[in-house]
Amino acid sequence: MEKVKVLIIGSGPAGYTAAIYASRASLSPVLYEGMEPGGQLTTTTIVENYPGFADGVDANQLMGVMKAQAQRFGADVRRGFVKAIDLSSRPFHATIDDGAEIEAETVIIATGATARYLGLPSERKFKGLGVSACATCDGFFYRRKDVAVVGGGDTACEEATYLANLCNKVYMIVRRDVFRASKAMQDKVFSTPNIEVLWNCNTQEVLGDEAGVTGARLLRKDGEVFDIKIDGFFLAIGHHPNSELFKEWVATDENGYIITDGKTSKTSVEGVFAAGDVQDPHYRQAVTAAASGCRAALDAERFLLNQ
Ligand code: NDP
């Protein structure tokens, strides 16, 4: 059986950064890229808020250079995903989709989160062409335009108020007649003049042409179907942390996010660390994920030194 000091699971900014640090510490990390090499960021186009790129950077290119940087220091980046894991005792035991078995002294979980979508074919069609699940990432492209945010939770309210600063008008498409969001977030929405809340509405279809989104067709609970004219359609109906594989072993919160100890990446299992969106329901940025990947590698290195 193959034995490794550090097994990194996931290939977003958190996983690759952990691999850069762990390989530079001569820990010869093995990283499995998972089902979506490059992670969530690859579902967007240009990244303009990652420090170091004055003119922005193509998301796939950014992930490509992070991977190359990790490989340059000897990280073993592999295609494939971990299909089963046993974290009950050290060394930990992982089974890869191709049947390979790995014994790992430490594990860094960097499997990210997945934004929830409505599941409409038209929504899929315009993903990256006006449909986005990240206002902080893509809002800037809709300056002075009209956009819609779907959802009534804290994220939707936060994203709507963020977009209202950039955009001409922001519709909020809310399926009930109340917000789920906290009172403070609701107050922000209600006091922002260019946000219009469309209560009791569900999206039937995202409308568009070859250039991208042009509108959305909504169905109100009273049966009325009507269209709104928009250039951007933002989903904010929650995220789903990719923690299923680990839940049996490490502590998670009520939403499935892996719980880490204070400012560290330590999980409830000694020698298992978590980084990036799988443990972060709040910030969800490439740069914060990268920073937590760094922490996880340093925590793993210290852990191994103390063994
Ligand atoms: P939530 O689960 O809190 O809210 C999801 C929202 O999306 C709800 O309004 C829900 O409607 C709606 N929704 C879900 N599915 C659909 C669907 N298929 N069609 C239409 N609408 C749908 O997720 P959030 O991402 O907003 O928040 C996650 C957690 O993070 C929460 O605990 C939140 O408090 C926290 N958070 C805190 C922030 C802060 O403190 N600054 C900022 C952002 C998030 P319904 O209500 O009808 O179920």
Give a concise summary.
This protein is α/β, with parallel strands linked by helices and 307 residues long. Helices cover 25% and strands 29% of the residues.
Structural class: alpha/beta
Radius of gyration: 21 Å
Taken from the alpha-carbon principal axes, the silhouette is elongated
Which fold does the CATH topology of the largest domain refer to?
Answer: FAD/NAD(P)-binding domain
State the total count of DSSP E strands: 19
Largest sheet: 7 strands, mixed
CATH architecture of the largest domain: 3-Layer(bba) Sandwich
Number of helical stretches of at least 4 residues: 7
Low-pLDDT stretches are: none
- Average residue-wise pLDDT: 96
User: Helix amount, in percent?
Assistant: 10-25%
User: Could you name the CATH class of the largest domain?
Assistant: Alpha Beta
Order of helices and strands: EHEEEHEEEEEHEHEHEHEEEEEEEH
N-to-C terminal Cα separation, in Å?
Answer: 21 Å
Question: How much of the sequence is in beta strands?
Answer: 25-35%
Distinct bound molecules: NADPH dihydro-nicotinamide-adenine-dinucleotide phosphate
**How many domains in all?**
2
Could you name the CATH homologous superfamily of the largest domain? Answer: FAD/NAD(P)-binding domain
